[in-house]
Every structure is written in C-alpha cells, then in structure tokens.
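hi support,

uploading two proteins for the ticket. first:
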Amino acid sequence: MPLQIVRNDITKMQVDAIVNAANPSLLGGGGVDGCIHRAAGPELLAECKALGGCDIGSAKMTLAYRLPCKHVIHTVGPQYIDGRHGERALLASCYRASLVLAQQAGCGTVAFPLISSGVYGYPKEEALEVAVDSIRAFLEENELTVYLVIFDKKAFQIGKQRFSDIAAFIDDHYVAAHTDSRAERLRRNPLARRNAPEDAFLGSAAPRPCAAPMQAASLDEAVRQLDESFSEMLLRKIDEKGLADAQVYKKANIDRKLFSKIRSDAHYRPSKPTAIAFAIALELPLDETREMLMKAGYALSRSNKFDVIIEYFLRRGNYNIFEINEALFAFDQNLLGA
C-alpha cells in the first residue's frame, strides 16, 4: 500500500531510501541519527562533512553505504517550543522535502522515522498527525510507497489515548471479550462434551441447512444466476459516483498495479482489508460496505476487533483511511490497503 505504519528498526528497512532525523551539522548525533551513522559506517560521515550542513525543514541526500537501502535522506526537524513558533510548518516541510528528493532520485520506496519526536521534544501525537497529513498530501499527486517506522512500542501508546473513544466503542461492542462460546464451555466441561452434538465444536462456522435449494434446469442456468462479483460491484460504484480510477485507488491506499489486476479480472478476490479500503474510498455507508464485503466472501463481525473499529468509523461517516489506519495500528490490527 502507498502508506504503511510499521514497527521496526529503520536501519533494517530494505527500501530505496531511509530518512534520517539529523541535526543541522549532519555530523551525527543521538537517537535515530546516531543509529543510522553507526549502521552505515564512517563513509557516511565523510560524505556528510562535504555537504556543509542543512537548514531546518530542508533535506539532503547521500549514499547509504553499509545500510540495506540505497540512499539516506537527511532532514532537520524543528525543536518544539510551544507549537506557536512555526514548528508544524517546518516539520511538514521535512516530509515534503524528503519525498521530493526521493522522487527525483527515482526511489519507489521510502522509510521515515517520526521526525522531531525524540530529543527535539515534538509531542508524539502531534508529530504523527503532521507526518501522516504531509505524506498523504504528497501521495495524492505521486506514486510512491512510504513507510512510517515506529521503533519503540511505547512511542505509539499515545495512539490509544488519542482514540480513547474508539476503545470505549470496542468495550461496548466487542463481544469476544465478554462472551464465552458454547464450544469453549464444552471443551472445559468433559461431562457436557460427552452429550453434545457433533457440530457443537464448529461454532459459528458450522453449516446450516438451506431453506430451499436453488432451482435451475441446468448448470448453465445456475451459472447465469450468479450474483455480481466484487470487482463488478466496485467498478459499478466508481462509475455511479463519477470518480476516476486514480481517485479511488489513491484514497483506498491501494497500489495502482493491484487496482489494475482487480479491474482486469471480474473474479478477483481481494483480501478483507483491501475490500474494506475500497468501501472506505467510495464512502459507502455501513449496509453497502457489508454488501461489498459479501461479494468478496467476507463479513463484519462483533467478535473481531478489527471489524468493530471499522464499524466505529463507518457509523460516524469518517472515511479518512489514514486516520483509520492510525487507529488500527494503535490497537495492533491489520491496516487497510493492499
């Protein structure tokens, strides 16, 4: 997908370029800066010395040397004072300048740390918001895959504070946390298990008898009765809303190549996050989202935390896929997109 939030060590990312949260001298320092210099080796410092430093909000590029990527983009974030000294604009400029350099160098994949959120003191929640907004704005006009790399799990715990109302919604609606299935009760009770029907341990997946078989005079007629596929419904909805393909797959955080596969194959079966991503991009209400998921063979369930979070956003008419992904990441769920 074009924007992914991942938990990793940025020096281990196998991408075309990683971004270094540097100081104005570009001569190394603590935190991410020091880790990148140590992993790259002394050759990186030697090249940086020839660059003559870097202004706050700007970026410069070097080779990556011993790192598993091709380039290092050095950008200097602002030190946070009180949020009223142009910090947000300077931080956003770091992301834009870095992405422009990456694109000019022909990079297809770029990994960012959360710039200025360490010793420079930028509040992590606000730093995350600036990062996502800046990257999203760039991706609306450009084809690139961007990773926002969170190294320390504690650094993202702010997400759960930011989405405290989602946590409350999950508590109210996530049935798996509060109920015990019949199958589980039977597993713990051998006496009850002995007298239980054979399908008791199949749970909700157990097949139920159909009300009536499909009436078809021949196999050909049965095939003709097949419903609209996911791909067909997706393309129909795009046409009905008068949208361009690029508008939809970008808003869905989907790679153009994957969208081309879906468009060319009427029977393409996407992953559940991809199917939901398209429903979000089309701003479908909850009932139409359920219908689109059914076309791909999925459903929303109150026993799945991922599904409950999706339902939370749909019920509120919030179709910002990047904000939804922030919430999913904060609650350790899969992200939307390819």
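and the second one:
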Amino acid sequence: MIKEITLSLEPEKASAEKYYLPIAASQLGLSLQQISFCQLRNRSIDARHGKVRVNLKLDIYIDELPKPDEFKLPEYQNVEHSKPVVIIGAGPAGLFAALKFLQTGLKPIIIERGKDVHTRRIDIAAIHRNQGVNPNSNYGFGEGGAGTYSDGKLFTRSKKRGDISEVLRILYANGGNPNILIDAHPHIGTDKLPAIIENIRKTIVEHGGEIHFETPFSELIVKNNKVYGVKLSNGDIIDSKTVVLATGHSARDVYFSLHKQGVLLEPKSFAMGVRIEHPQSLIDSIQYSCRQRGPYLPAASYSLVQQSAGRGVYSFCMCPG
C-alpha cells in the first residue's frame, strides 16, 4: 500500500527524513515499524506569510517497496549502422534530440561550429582577459550551448509542453545533484554542467552517434523542396533526408543561408537582457523575512514578470548564491 501525504514543516524538521518521517507516521496513524520506505516526491518553500515553511510531498510505502523500474532511464539502442539524422548544433536542444534518436533507433550526427566543452573554457577565459573573442567558440557557441555557463537557461516555467521529469532524470544520471528531482525550482549548478554535458556526449558516441566539433554548417542540400543533406563550410556533404536545426538564436549566418535558399522564416521580437547582481543577504532577507536564513534554507531566489508601456519585462534566469 502507498499513501501520499503533504507536510508543511519548519525548515529544520524538513531537512532530514529522521525528523519528518515520525511526523508523517503520526499523521497517518502508523508506527515507524509499519513504514517500509519513504519517497520524497517534491519539496518547495512557502515564505509568503512572513514565517518560512517547507512543503514536502511524500509517498509512504506500507509493507512494500518501490518497483525497481520506477525511475528507469530511457533505453538507448546501438545505432552505429542505422539511418543517419543530421543535427546542427550541440546545445541542449541538439544533445537531447540526439538522445531521443538513440531511443528510436536512428543515428544522430551532430555538427557543431564550436569546440568541445573542455577546450571551450580556454576561449572563454581569453574573453575575460581581453584577449579577443573567437567567433566560433565563446559563451554562445560550443558544446552545451549558452546554457553550459548559465544554467538558468535550462530552467523552464512551462508545464504545458510535456513532462520535464525525464529531462531532469537524464541530467541527474549524468552527474546532476539528486535534489533536482524533487525541488520545485531545480538548480543544476554551473560548476556541474560541463561534466554533465561531457557525459551526455559520451552516451551518444558510445551508442554509435557522432559529434563533429569545429565543423560549421554552410547550407542545406535541397532538391524539389526536399532536404537531402547538409553542406559544411569546408565543402564536405553529409547525406540525410532529415535535418534538425538546433542552432540557437545567435547563429546569424545560418539564418542568412536559409533565407538565401528560400526557406520560410518567421521573425521574432528582439529582446535585450541585462545582468543585475544583488547581495545574497538582501534577497534572503526579502524573501524569507529574516536577517539570516540559517543552515536549513537554501539561498533564496526570485523571478520578475511585469508589463511596462505595453512591453513585457521578465527575469530570464536567476543564479541564487
């Protein structure tokens, strides 16, 4: 038997199972000996009323254990000799598209104008030392895309586009913190992302996929309004009747190329971003209504959505701490 229960607790009592499990047992009218397993499903913080509470959603297992495949990861096929699919761009969209193709038995071939995530760090460091910008290897281009160095870009508020739990499980399986599976606002950690991205690449290659770095796209191979492959900047051609454009919005030359070939493009309104830094203690004091948050609360975060003069103003990502 499985019983679901939601607890609203003080931060210390919500910090460890040894504190909250007896409370759950008492509310369910059970003894601790009757509980065979406790699964923490979701954790969120409610600081709206001046006194911080942590909400825990628990599954309490009575005389049974979770099924071994409950958190099973997708099964990837060996696609070394399968039908190829070309993916342009090795950002989050391109990498996760490749993983989906491994599930369906197609061979992903990713072409990426930038460098691998490890080598890319050298070019980013050069930017900070005012040594110039490599146009193909920087914050926008390279393995992992822009999100690699600002993990807020991997966060979504949208729940309308499908279940994101599989994405979080994949990130966890490749080195992410297990807390991302339960926190209402999961934070991957910019320090962890490069290794996670590298592990995802290893999964793709080990199952027969290919990733080609420093390989800029030139144009689509189109005949009778059908795609037959891509041409690279060095003149090489990769044959494939399926091409996934995962280039991100900064690949202006790609869009010029598509426009030149008569591919229908739709303009988007231009958004300008600014970076704002606050002392963490200020955000903590505002969100938690206290001078110091203490050891049982994470660094507080916030989001902003506002209409001003008919235009939307919103926070794009926030890195607490």
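thanks. also noticed: The chain has a mean pLDDT of 90.
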